Amino acid sequence: MHDRPPLRWVADLFESHEEIVERAISRVPPIFSIANATDLYELIVGFARVFQDLWLLPSQGTVKNTAKTTAAAARYILEFPRSHWDFDQSEMGEMSDFRTRLRSLRDHSSIASVRENVGNVLDYGRDRARPHVPEVPTLQYLNLTNTARVLQLEASAVNELVANKFLSALPAGGGQMRRHKSFRRKQVAALQSRMAGRLSWADFCRLTGLPHVAIEQLLEVGALKRCEDGAIRLIYGPGHLERSTATSYVEQLLRVALPEAPSGWISLRDVMIGVGGRAKPWAPMLNAALKGDIPGGVARSQGDRLDALAIHPLVARRMVMGGPEVSLPFGEPPSLTSDVAPHMGAGGVADYLNCTAQDISWLRARGYLRSISIPPARALYLRKDAEALGVTYISTREIAARLGLKAKEVWEGFDFIANEATIGQGFHWRAAIETKFGQLP
Q1: Is 184 helix (H, G, I), strand (E, B) or coil?
Q2: What is the pLDDT of residues 45-73, one digit of tens each?
Q3: Which fold has domain 343-439?
């Protein structure tokens, strides 16, 4: 009985009546940035997985997401911040475990809106300024514990740095300070400075709102640079950028943008929904904005988010006219090198196909798309399979964006999609739809 109200609220997100969906979304507390029902549903699913992991005993193994965890996730969102502080008052370190799992969700989710909203929760009640960097003690030598604290690493990670010769441990012996493994203060401070020069892909996406494919393109054209520091790659893996280059690029774009978007201007995020059957031209658009090549320029519409930079509606119309065979006005997205991952997460596939996570599940259930990962691991799909689907099919969302309509208006009172061109779930044969586009006045 206790779970029924939050589950009813979740069910309202799938109602065919738009006013019911909008009413459900309106109940979300202001800390969460929710653009549509899909964003909200993905956030609920993410929190449900956190609760599933939190409540799972090691002896139980992996369990499927249940109504109980979904209801818990819904309650957590609806009752925020009270629900958040309820965890803080709980026993047995539950809040610490909860935050650990939230950080994992923020860093590994393939969906930008989930990363952003979970980041907001993690920042709640804390200083939002640049993360605190521990001061290096003034002692000439630091023991293993202090070195790990300064570098914000586990002791095992420090030992790994030593084993790979990124940090030199002084030989033991000779006085109280040297009986155990110790390190020169200056060397630790220098390594700390190097570590601070990294910016993870996940953090860059969360701060700018850009998808992973935008980073891939910006790296390809040299606007961003990979962090090649061996110590950082050893500890944190390859998915990091040079912080100075990344922040400089963002700052330059924000400087050339108008401070506020005029009424009717369209965000780059919404423009990209109208680009299908090929990669989204994130790098060409952003670099054109930086060079001043976009007529009317760009303007901020949502803080410092780059995906929310807005352009004049006539420029947006030029971007989406003609379909995948027509040249894009500001250049084609770069061809990605062979070191780019051959797979994509569900969020990346949804962005490419201009659809929702529910649509991806529908395609998968009917054999149009096949996951290459083994459950319970996160679903991954071959990039080439997503590209082939995009060439063959077009979504209702893409059609609506190209027509300048809402998705439901494509079906209601606008005779555009013939029944024989539809395969279901808002997907249609692209060739038939492109023919219809060609017949428009």
Answers
A1: strand
A2: 999 988 888 776 444 444 455 788 899 99
A3: Multidrug-efflux Transporter Regulator; Chain: A; Domain 2 (1.10.1660)
